[in-house]
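#dry-run=false #mode=assembly
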Amino acid sequence: MDSKAPTGGEKLIQCLEREGVEYVFGLSGGAAMPMFDALVDSKIKLILVRHEQGATHMADGYARSTGKPGVVLVTSGPGATNTVTGLFTALMDSAPIVVICGQTIAPMLGKDAFQEADVTGITYPVVKHSYLVKRADDIPRIVREAFHVATTGRPGPVLIDVPKDIGQGPCTAPFTDDLDLPGYTVPSRGDPALIAEAARLLSESRRPLLYVGHGAVISGAGKAITTLAEKLRAPVVNTLLGKGAVDERHPLHLGMLGMHGTAYANKAVANCDLIMAIGARWDDRITGKVEEFCAGAVKIHIDIDPAEFDKIITPHVSLLGDARLVVEDLIPLIEMAQTEAWLAQCDRWRRQHPLKYPKRGGLRAQHVLDRLNALTQGDAIVTTDVGQHQMWAAQFCLASNNRHWISSGGAGTMGFGWPAAIGAAFANPHKKVWAVVGDGGFQMTQCELATAQIHKVRAKCLIINNNYLGMIRQWQELFYDNRLSGADLVGNPDFVKLAEAYGVKGFRIRRPADVDRILRKAHDYDDGPCVVVAEVVKEDNVFPMIPAGAAVHEMIIEPPRQALAKPTGST
Amino acid sequence: MSAARPLTATDPTGTHTISVFVNNKPGVLVRVALVFARRGFNIESLVVSPGAEGRFSRMTITCSGRNEDLGQVVKQVAKLVDVVHAVDHTADSAYSVEIALMKLECALDERTHILQIAEHYKARVVDFGPKALMLQAHGSSEKLDALTELLRPFALVEVIRSGKLLMARGEGRT
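#status=ok
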C-alpha cells in the first residue's frame, strides 16, 4: 500500500473541499467513520445535528437560499433511512442536495450485517441519481458527477453510498473534472421558432397571465420576467414555491394562485385568454379540476424538464430550456399587448376581494404574519413548515427577493421549516431568517434547537400555536361534519420553556396588542436562535380555498354557511 | 419528444414496445422498472443485452398499460441519468423477432399432428425423447402466440419465450 495515498474517506472529503463545500450537516456512526475522521483535518465545518432528517432539511435550506448544493453525511442503516424524507422533499421541490452515507464493508453487502440497509435500493424513487461506490478510485469522478447532476438542469438530490472498507482503503486516483454521463443532457436556450411562436401568441393576447414557479427562482429568471411583464403589460401570479422570483409588491403582481391563493389571482386564472407557465408544473394545487382549468386559454409552458410537458396539461407551445434564457430571448420579440381593460379588471378584483381576517376575537395567525411582513419588508428569508400557517404565511408574507422564500411544496413535509431555516442561516449569516412553523410540524424536528443553539445560529422560529393540526381540523370541519379525528394536539409542551431548556431565548405573544413589540424584540435579537410562540385562536380557517379537485371558479372566498361536499381531488 | 407522443388508438389500454439504451451498470434495470411500476404498467417481456459497445446495454420492453400514459412513461424513463435514450416503437415498422421453446408431453404415436403443425410454423424439434419433445420456433410475437394456441390441446407443459428483440430499420435509431 502506498503510504502517501489518502484513504477513500479522505479523498472524498478533499473532493467536497474542491467543490467549494463550506458545511456538512451530519450525524456520525460506525460505517461513516472514515469520512468523519477525515473531517477532523478539513476546513469544512461539520454541523452535528440531532436527527438525520434535520440534516437533510438544513442542507435543503442552505441549497435553496443560495443555489449551491447542500451536503449531508450520515451513517449506514437507520442513519441513511432517516434521510429518505429529506431526499423526497428535495426531489419534489428540485433542491440540489448531496447525501453521503456510510455503508457496511463491501464483502458484507446483502448479508444482513449490523446497520446494513439496501440504501441505494430504498432510495431509488426519491433521488435524481445515486451511486454505490465499488472502488475507491471511482470517488473523485463520482463526487464530481454527483455535484454536477444535483445542481444542473432540473436540480435534485443525489445519494452516494460508501462502504466502510472503501472509505478506509487507499484511493490513488487524481481529482478529475471528467464526467461519464452519456445519458445526461442539460437544456439551455429554447428553440428560436417556438420562442417566436410564443412571442406572437403573447403579443396577440388581450388577457395574458404569467404563471411563475420554482423553476424561475432556480434559474434566476425574476428580473427577465419582470421586464417581460412590464413590456407586455401582463399581470403575474406565482406558485407557493415561485414566491420571490418576481417582487410580490410589484403593481402587476397578483400574489399566489391555487388552492389557497388570492381571490384576484384565481379570478385572473379563470378569466385569462393566455397563460404562460414559467418553470411551473401545473400541480394539482394550481389546476384544481384539470378539465376546466383555463379551458379556453392558450397555454405556453417553459420548462427545463421535458417530462413536464403534456403530463397534466398539453400546452400549445412547449418551450424546453432554462427559464431565464428563454424569457430573455422572448423579450425582444414582444410587442406591448392591448391589456388596459384586463389590468383594470384585475385591479377591480384586487379591490373587491382583498385578503382579510377578523380583527377581533383573540390573537389571529394572519395578524401575526401580516405584522411580520410589515417588519421584514420582504428582506428576510422566510421558511415555513406545512399546514395552515404555511398558507397564511404565503398569503401575508410577501417575498420581494429571489431565494428568500423556502417552503416544502410538493412533498408537504412537516418538520421542514425549522431545520431549513437553520441551514439558510448558516448560508446567510448577515440576513434575518425567520421560520414560520405550526405546533405540529415543529415537534417533528424540534431537537434541532440544540444544533442552532450550539452554533449560535441566528434563525428565529415563529411557532403559530393553535394546539391543533390546523389544516386537518379545517378539512374535518368543512368536509367531514366537524368529526375531528387525529387533529387535537392536546398535551403540547410549553414551547417557551422548551426553548429555554435548550438555552434558546423564548418569547411569547398572547394578545394582539403584543404582536408588534414582541416580533420587533425577536427580530432584533442577535445572540443566537430564538423562539416566538404565538398562542393563536384554536379554530380558524384558511380562505380563499379551492377544494381539492374543484374548478378554479368554484373558489370559496369567505367561510361557507352550509356543509360542503367531500372533495374529489387527491388530498 | 416526437418519439414520446401518446398513441391515438381507440383502445385505452394496449401493448407497447419500447427500446431503452442505457449505461451497462448495476441497478439500471431497477430504475427503469420502477418507472413502469409507478405508472401501473405491467412489463410483459424484457430483453437486456450488451450493445455494440460493451459499456451500454439495450433493453427491449413490451408492456401493457393506458395508452395515454405511455408518452409520460417513456419521458420519465428517458429522464433517468443512466438512460441514454428511450424510444417508443409501438407504431413504427421496426424489425422484430422472438424465439420460443415449447415442451409437449406425449407418447411417440401421438406426435403426427404436432409435427405437422411444427412444420407449418417452421419450428424445429430440438429434443425428441420417449415421453416428451421440445420445439424451437422463432418469428413475430403474433406468430408465436398462434403456435402456442394450436399446441395447447396437445399436453403443452412448458413454454418459454425470449421476449421481443427489436431493431429500427435502415439508418434509424433503435
